[in-house]
Structure formats: structure tokens, C-alpha cells
Amino acid sequence: MKIVKIKKKILSKGIVKFSESDDFKELREYIPSEDIRNIHWLSSAKHQKLLAIEKEPLKNQKIAIILQLDKNMLFKDKLDIAKEIFKILSYSAIYLKQKLEITIVTDKIKTFTPKHFKEIEKIPLNFIKEQSNHQLKLLKKLSLVYNITILAPLIIVKSNEKYKTLIKFQNGKARYYYQQVFMPYNHWNEEAFFDKKESTPLIFSIGNIRIGAMFGFEAHFTKFWDYFAQKKVDLVVISSVGSFNSSKRWFELLKSFAFIKNMYVARVNRVGRWEEWEFYGNSFVVNSDGELVNSLGNKEELLIASINKNLIKESRKEWKFMQLGRELKIN
Which domain CATH number covers 138? Predict the structure, then answer.
């Protein structure tokens, strides 16, 4: 309905106009019978007589239509309106037999990366794919140039299928984990949006520290924790976008698993705001005894924590949860 109203406004009020004879040729004496708007008043005052601007038809006129796209234009209603206006202007230029040059400015789009599921629901698939490819190239390059390991959640598009992934970047190469369990709730229905692909949770090493990684929702399921424990992981990194005052609940959940499985756990949670959603941050690290090592607030901050391998060994030796669990039989 909004698009129809804009069409009527443009076409009925004659907003689309292209000048056919406004190229300056010369100044000449004003003819009393012509339009006084042709008078060039500054020149007339200087020469003490009325002078008019002589015009001639434009030759080889080119109409340039520029559409600048930024992140605010990617949502469906605004993008559809922009496309309709674009088509009307293009048609008008062609109808008037003017040369047409179309330019789409996309510099701002290249820096836009959706940060969570709700931001990408209405974004066209080709934009998501373009952004994913751009981020993949950038993160590969950063890991190679600076010799660092990067763990990043990205939406990947392959053959028009959308995957939510955790990717480890190291030495210019990427290793993927595809999320296995999705939230199915009405207010946040990832299960209906994303495609599924069988995948094994990431496990990799930095020095002598074995690191595992999974998404926040998956941390509610003991099978993931059992898998990491069987692989003798020292640190589990959890990527999440927690909101709605769930910080305390998350802390209690993850410190309990850290203690039960005798491993460090790092929760990396989003900060910022999107519409009514407040992402509180409060990222933290707890050790293998379930004790807080370090934490952040609700701003973009940097957390530094030491992973004590000896503490992990002592916790496992003292509590023997893994050993007792293997011996446990329930009939």
C-alpha cells in the first residue's frame, strides 16, 4: 500500500522532470515580451541595462540515477520502496529519450554484518551471502597476517541454504562447525529459518590447551558436555546472544557444567541493543572448580584470562567425576 501511494504522488504531481533546454549559451539584451525570469539581474545592474540569459537545447544529455544503499535500506519494506522509485525514474528517463546512467553505491553495505538471527530474517539472501563471503576473506587474512586464531559465528549461504556456523580461522584457513540444535520458540524461531547439516563440534589446540566450541543454546544439552569431556577438552567457548535478564541463570548453568566436567568455560555474549532487545554482555570465564576467573560488563570490552592446566588436572584427580561416571551403571 505504501508503494502504491508513492507511485501516485510521483506521477500525479510531476515530480519526475528532466530539463531539455537549460544549457547556458550567452547573455543578450532583454526582449520586453519574454519571461522576466530570463533576466540576469547581477549582469543587468553591472551594465545598467536589462540582460537576459540565452539558452540552447542540451545535446547528448545523460541522466544519472544514484541509489545509495546502507544497512537501513536492507529491510524489506524500505528496499521495495527504493526499487519502485528507481524503476519509475528509470522509465521516465527512457520515455524522454535521455541517456541513462545507473549507479548503486554499496560502500556502507560492505561494512554491515548482521549480529544475530532477528536482524537477518528480512534481509535478502544475496546480501547475506555477500557479507559472509566478505567476512570469510577478511578473517582468513587477519589470522594469516597476524598469526592468530579467531573463533567467529557467521551465517553461511550455500546453494540458497542458510547455515549458522562457528568458524575457526588459523593460518589463513577456515574450519566450520554447523549448529546442530536450534531454538524453536515463537519469539526466536531459528529452527524454522536455518537449514541443518550434520557436524561435529569444534575441537582444536592452542599450545597445550585443548579448546572446544559450541553455540549458547546447545549448552543446555548434556550430550555436548559429555563429548567435550570424553575428548579431554580444557576450555569450552560458548557464543551467545543472551537477553531478557538471563545473565544470572546463564552464569549458574555454565559454572555448574564447568565444575561437573572439570574444565574452564568462557561465555562470549553480545552487547548492544536491537529494537526492544537489550543484549547485556556480561561475558565471563569460570575455572574447572566452577569459580569465576574474570568477567566483563555491558560494553565492548576485552577480557584476558589464564588457563591453568595444572588446576584442571588437580580438579579431575580430586573429584573423579569422569572416572566415576564411566563406572556408573543404572539398570
Answer: 3.60.110.10
Rounded Cα distance between 76 and 184, Å, is: 23
- H helices of 24-124, in order, are 41-47, 76-95, 117-120
Q: Domain range holding 140?
A: 114-325
Say if residues 165 and 156 touch (Cβ distance below 8 Å): yes
SS3 141: helix
301 CB-side CA count, 13 A: 14
C-alpha cell of residue 160 = 540458497
Residue 186's pLDDT is what?
A: 86
Q: What is the pLDDT of residues 83-95, one digit of tens each?
A: 676 667 666 666 6
Digit-coded pLDDT (tens) for 193-206 = 999 999 999 999 99
Q: 222-230 and 247-261 helices cross at what angle (nearest 10)?
A: 40
Which residues sit opposite 189 in a β-bridge?
184
The rounded distance, in Å, linking the Cα atoms of 259 and 288 is: 5
All residues at 6 or more sequence positions from 219 whose CB lies less than 8 Å from its CB, including other chains = 225, 238, 240, 253, 254, 257
**Distances in whole angstroms, Cα of residue 181 to Cα of each of 76, 191, 201, 223:** 28, 8, 12, 11
Q: Which of 105, 128, 154 is the last residue of a domain?
A: 105
Q: What are phi and psi of 140, to 5 degrees?
A: -60, -45
Total domains, the chain: 2
Q: For residue 307, what pLDDT is reported?
A: 93
Q: How confident is the model over 113-153, as pLDDT tens digits?
A: 445 566 777 778 888 888 889 899 999 999 998 889 999 99
Question: What pTM did the predictor assign?
Answer: 0.65
Non-local CB neighbours of 208 within 8 Å, separated by 6+ positions: 309
Residue 52: Cβ within 10 Å count: 20
- Hey, what long-range contacts does 182-189 have (CB within 8 A, 24 or more apart)? 182/217, 183/217, 188/117, 188/118
Strand bridging mode 150-158 / 209-215: unpaired
Angstrom distance (rounded) from CA 225 to CA 263:
10
Among 105, 132, 148, identify where a domain stops.
Answer: 105
